[in-house]
Amino acid sequence: MTDRSGDGSGIEFQIEGPEVTRAFVIHPDVKSRGPAKGGWRDAQAKLDEAVGLSLAIELEIAAAVIVPLSKVSPGAFFGTGKVAELGEQIEVAEADIAILNGQLSPAQQRNLERAWKVKVLDRTGLILEIFGRRANTREGTLQVELAHLNYQKSRLVRSWTHLERQRGGAGFMGGPGETQLEADRRIIQDRITRLRKQLDQVVRTRTLHRESRAKVPYPVVALVGYTNAGKSTLFNRLTDADVLAKDLLFATLDPTMRQIELPKGRKVILSDTVGFISDLPTTLVAAFRATLEEVLAADVILHVRDIAHAETEEQAADVMAVLKDLGVSQGARDEIIEVWNKIDLLDADHRAALNTDAACHQARVVPVSAVTGEGVPALLARVEEALAEHIPVFSIDLAPEDGAQLAWVYGHGEVLDRKEGEDGRIRLTARFDVRHAGTAARQLGGRMKPADGA
């Protein structure tokens, strides 16, 4: 581990070892698990995802295997014979680390490391490694460190001697009867407490920023989706930004926000968020809640899906489950616009069937290609429509001499209809967003009333 914060408190969690670390990737295909636990999904797709996660931290894949498993052993996850068999395969592959695509208890992890004589990382540990390398902002670094310390706290086995060098003062020193393990646990807990206080300040700062935007206020449009679904590529397409967009899992970690203009001139704030993934540990969701609060505050949520992926439906279900955990209400989830991305990767027949399917969902689905730009104008138009759905419509009667008020309506509202009478009076049907609704009422007075049926 190396300090990356400059003040002795930040940690960059990286795998120590040779310049090129060879990984042996294992996906345990546990047959006893039902669909709710991910047991009935395609094992090869899950293995491919684990390989992708490993490649995201530049591991060299020595081998990747699927291990059918009837049940999980509490001692070492696998039975004694399978542990020995895998140990031989790891030795033959000359792997430096074993990646297990599942959740290991501290005891299981220790027992496997003793048996295989290599470092063992489970899915949570691997995702934390990726997050540690992706975090670029102070907020992201704090979130990663907090999640990692919570993960490691239960895995202390008298191996955290490096913490002794970071105590920094008598306040961390233990009494005469305190063991090293107890001291390390206390050090970690103290750091967790300090990190939570720092993240509380981050939340307060983000809340102030959100309140400042609310005074403008520009609507917020949040991009969410499974990792590698193409959110950052779409974000770049819509904003002409230069957000990291690679064929890597978790290419984006820190939130990015940009202002864009919709076809009819309305300005919105577009927010790119960290990608979701199946079996995302609860501790990680909690640690990144400050970042994901932008989703909770969004006026429109765009769920970006890799529609060309073999498990696009399962990935979509994983995203919706995380949104539910975050507290996005059922009503808001029902109104999410699905962006079916990567249509450029589909053949003609598949695309035709997809367009038919999208048409059945009416306005809640927009097929696009973030790479080519196909479908993006329709997506922007749909966002504009979604924002307008909850804006009240007014009927405005103006006399011929009300030229200033007429100009004001055209300058600050959206005119939906205009009718002129023989006497020169003008009746407008118009709507105003939150920024101008109150001003419109004061500016127009009795000339404005809710439109029939509004």
Helical/strand content category: alpha/beta
- CATH architecture designation of the largest domain: 3-Layer(aba) Sandwich
Largest sheet: 6 strands, mixed
Strand content: 15-25%
pLDDT under 50 segments (min length 5)?
A: 1-18, 34-40, 158-177, 243-253
Question: SSE layout and pairings?
Answer:
Layout: E1 22-30, H1 43-55, E2 60-69, H2 80-92, E3 97-100, H3 106-116, E4 119-121, H4 123-134, H5 138-153, H6 180-215, E5 220-225, H7 231-239, E6 256-261, E7 267-272, H8 282-287, H9 289-296, E8 300-306, H10 312-326, H11 330-334, E9 337-341, H12 348-360, E10 365-367, H13 376-388, E11 393-398, H14 403-412, E12 414-420, E13 426-431, H15 434-444, E14 448-450
Describe this structure in words.
By secondary structure, this protein is α/β, with parallel strands linked by helices. It folds into four domains: 109 residues, Rossmann fold (3-Layer(aba) Sandwich); 55 residues, no CATH class; 171 residues, 3-Layer(aba) Sandwich (Rossmann fold); 58 residues, Alpha-Beta Plaits (2-Layer Sandwich). Helices cover 42% and strands 18% of the residues. The strands form three sheets. The chain has a six-stranded mixed sheet, with helices on both faces. Strands 2-1-3-4 form a four-stranded parallel sheet, with helices on both faces. The chain has a four-stranded antiparallel sheet with strand order 12-13-11-14, covered by helices on one side. Helix 12 links the parallel strand 9 and strand 10.
